[in-house]
Design a protein that fits this description.
single chain; 714 residues; alpha/beta; Rossmann fold; six-stranded parallel β-sheet; five-stranded mixed β-sheet; 22 strands; 15% strand
């Protein structure tokens, strides 16, 4: 969404393509402390922003078989599903540019199941239309986890096949695609079309474009492959091995038989090339193959994307470095120039103006309104870091946002919170690598300290944790239950009173992020170093006047670089330390034995202090922490707790805290998605952003003026 907003604001002729899911990510309900999923029937009351475009409906083929003849390969006896596009306008910021997001909905053809044998059962045939239309029924809710289901592969090919037909139709209709006798129709394709693969989910676009060029347009293989590679670029979004897509060959052969043949041919030529450069290095061939041998042969979709693209990028400096030197090191050794970095960004229109008008206005009073289109101008705020009036105003806006959010919480969740307490917020998908458990151990530690010495000064905190767990992710669901169990104890202990409150924020989603982020004092970004590719929540909090406690991971590294490490609360192992600990072997028991407060907290979870009715409720969690914690929660616990003490200490000095906030906001300019998209446009798509303001429809146009300043579409 941020990228679409920036592309329109920068005047790029760009389209966002995807699936129009009937049901989006589930709504999360918390019942008795457990996550319960409910269907998100978001279209129930209609969607006024979309326009169905049946005139552009396209066929998508599945199953069938391949026939080879002198004239080439033919994919026949297929099942057809229709792709119906729905267009949503994407307006640029105050520049009269409106781009399009086109989402495909699956429709059965009218003769579905009525062509063939079951002439008799008309009713059943009509009911069976649902089978085809199920393709766009529901979004798979996994985060950072690959689930190799046939319906998911159908979804991936569905969006790819419809989109490529659409792109080629538009290309052929343009002046560039028109046939003349001098040159092949598709010679200028990569100059006119750039396709960015958002992770490996649309990877089937590579063999699909080859199929169109070779089987349908009758281009020679080498020419088709050259055009294909120059058209595609691939963005990698994760390094977790369980998240990488590896589709079973058998499934692809059944669903997309021609595509499997094309993938085999791509792989053969790729491996022949490697073998010519590294003779007799069979291990390298095995490592770099698109096909993984094993119990079940699988296609490594990331390898397909790298081989089929002219550019590969990670989404933060540290992530792109890991992609180059660890995950895909063999490929990077071969073509180092192919690998780039494009640090993620967020749109300041939604994540400042829309969600935090008070702060946006205050900034505009000091530096003017131009920063909204050029966020680097926030550096001008540095000269107000010692301005007492500005410091007070920034603190006042934050306090107003906190009061407003506290009122919302009271109304929606019937919980009363102290708006002068520090709002300590940890909102993101629930996952072991994001270490919500470490936050939980810190909460228990604070609770134990308050009870041990009730008279001692304690900086009051409201700890807010929110996020959805994938429905099949047992450990993530146990983590939610644990947080709620701890909240139950802490929030009802009279010794604690208003010093510490714990809230699990139900059904965390964009609309709720827009409320909680402007009200946050402390942003928790505490993933194990080397696991969070970038993160973007971290940037949203920084722009909205929160301070960050975090590890040197993802974009946190660059946030510290921009603001100065002394203006973030950085703690814990770096990537090198994690690697070192892996070599040596991580032993959780050591930390448990050495740190009394950690031992106390873990023992409380283990003994049923937080689950008296079922003392063994959290045994799976405790067992994981001791015996198979890939993300080393105990190894960073001590540094985390010490760092949190520094946070509390600074919070006592409101003026010093707010000055640090201002330094952070002033350094947030780099993290605009406008900057990110300019880099994609310059380094990958080779298009020029345009700041031409298109005249509004009510003003006469210069007759000679071309509608798009750049013919090139991304």
């Amino acid at each position: 969404a941020c990228f679409l907003d920036s592309m329109a604001t920068l005047g790029l002729a760009a389209y966002g393509y995807g699936i129009r899911y009937e049901y989006g990510i589930f709504n999360q309900k918390i019942r008795d402390g457990w996550q319960v999923e409910e269907a998100d029937d978001w279209l129930r009351h209609g969607n006024p922003w979309e326009k169905a475009r049946p005139e552009y409906m396209l066929p998508v083929h599945f199953y069938g078989r391949v026939e080879h003849s002198a004239s080439g390969a033919k994919w026949i006896d297929t099942q057809v599903v229709l792709a119906l596009p729905y267009d949503t306008p994407v307006p640029g910021y105050m520049n009269n540019t409106v781009n399009t997001m086109r989402l495909w909905s699956a429709r059965a053809p009218n003769d579905f199941n009525l062509r063939d044998f079951n002439v008799g059962d008309y009713i059943q045939a009509v009911l069976d239309r649902n089978l085809a239309e199920n393709i766009s029924r529901v979004l798979y809710p996994n985060d950072n986890f690959f689930e190799g289901k046939e319906l998911r592969l159908k979804q991936e090919y569905f969006v790819v096949a419809a989109t490529l037909q659409d792109i080629i139709r538009r290309f052929k209709a343009s002046k560039f695609g028109s046939t003349d006798s001098v040159r092949t129709v598709f010679d200028s394709f990569p100059e006119q079309v750039a396709i960015q693969l958002n992770d490996t989910h649309p990877a089937m676009a590579i063999p699909e474009l080859m199929r169109i060029f070779v089987d349908i347009e009758k281009l020679p293989w080498d020419k088709a492959w050259d055009i294909t590679k120059r058209t595609f670029a691939y963005t990698n979004h994760t390094v977790l091995p369980e998240a990488l897509e590896r589709w079973p060959v058998d499934l692809v052969e059944k669903l997309l038989p021609r595509h499997l043949q094309i993938i085999y041919e791509i792989n053969q030529r790729h491996l022949d090339h490697i073998a010519s450069l590294f003779p007799n290095d069979t291990d390298r061939l095995r490592r770099m193959s698109l096909i993984e041998e094993g119990d079940t042969k699988r296609i490594n979709m990331a390898h397909l994307c790298i081989v089929g693209s002219h550019a590969v990028n990670g989404v933060a400096k540290i992530h792109s470095e890991i992609v180059k030197t660890q995950v895909f090191e063999d490929f990077a050794a071969l073509e180092p120039e192919k690998f780039q970095n494009k640090t993620n960004g967020i749109t300041p229109r939604r994540w400042l103006l829309l969600c935090n008008p008070g702060l946006a206005e205050l900034i505009a009073e000091k530096i003017g309104e131009d920063y909204v289109r050029d966020l680097s101008q926030l550096t001008k705020l540095h000269k107000f870091v010692d301005d007492d009036l500005f410091i007070r105003e920034v603190a006042k806006v934050k306090q107003e946002n906190k009061v407003k959010f506290a009122q919302y919480l009271e109304k929606e969740y019937k919980v009363k919170i102290n708006p002068s307490s520090m709002f300590d917020v940890h909102v993101k998908r629930i996952h072991e690598y994001k270490r919500q458990l470490m936050n939980c151990l810190h909460i228990i530690t604070m609770y134990n300290r308050i009870r041990r010495d009730p008279a001692k000064l304690f900086v009051p905190r409201t700890v807010i944790i929110g996020g959805k767990a994938a429905p099949g992710y047992h450990m993530a669901k146990m983590i939610i239950k644990l947080i709620n169990a701890v909240a139950q104890v802490v929030n009802n202990d009279p010794m604690v009173g208003s010093k510490l409150k714990v809230i699990f924020l139900e059904n965390y989603r964009v609309s709720l992020a827009e409320k909680v982020i402007p009200a946050t004092d402390l942003s928790e970004q505490i993933s194990t170093a080397g696991t969070e590719a970038s993160g973007t929540g971290n940037m949203k909090f920084m722009l909205n006047g929160a301070l960050t406690i975090g590890t040197m991971d993802g974009a946190n590294v660059e946030m510290a670089e921009e603001a100065g490490e002394e203006n973030l609360f950085i703690f814990g192992m770096r990537v090198e330390d994690v690697t070192e600990l892996d070599k040596k072997g991580y032993n959780a028991q050591l930390y448990y034995d050495r740190l009394p407060e950690l031992k106390q907290a873990v023992d409380q979870i283990k003994s049923g202090f937080f689950s008296p009715k079922d003392p063994n409720l959290f045994s799976d969690v405790v067992n994981m922490l001791f015996h198979h914690d890939r993300f080393k929660v105990f190894a960073d616990y001590e540094a985390y707790v010490k760092c949190q003490e520094k946070v509390s200490e600074l919070y006592l000095n409101s003026k010093a805290w707010t000055k640090m906030v201002i330094r952070n906001i002033a350094a947030a300019g780099k993290f605009s998605s406008d900057r990110t998209i300019k880099e994609y446009a310059r380094d990958i798509w080779h298009v020029e952003p345009s700041d031409l303001k298109i005249p509004p429809p009510n003003e006469p146009r210069d007759a000679g003026q071309d509608k798009t300043p750049n013919g090139t579409a991304a």
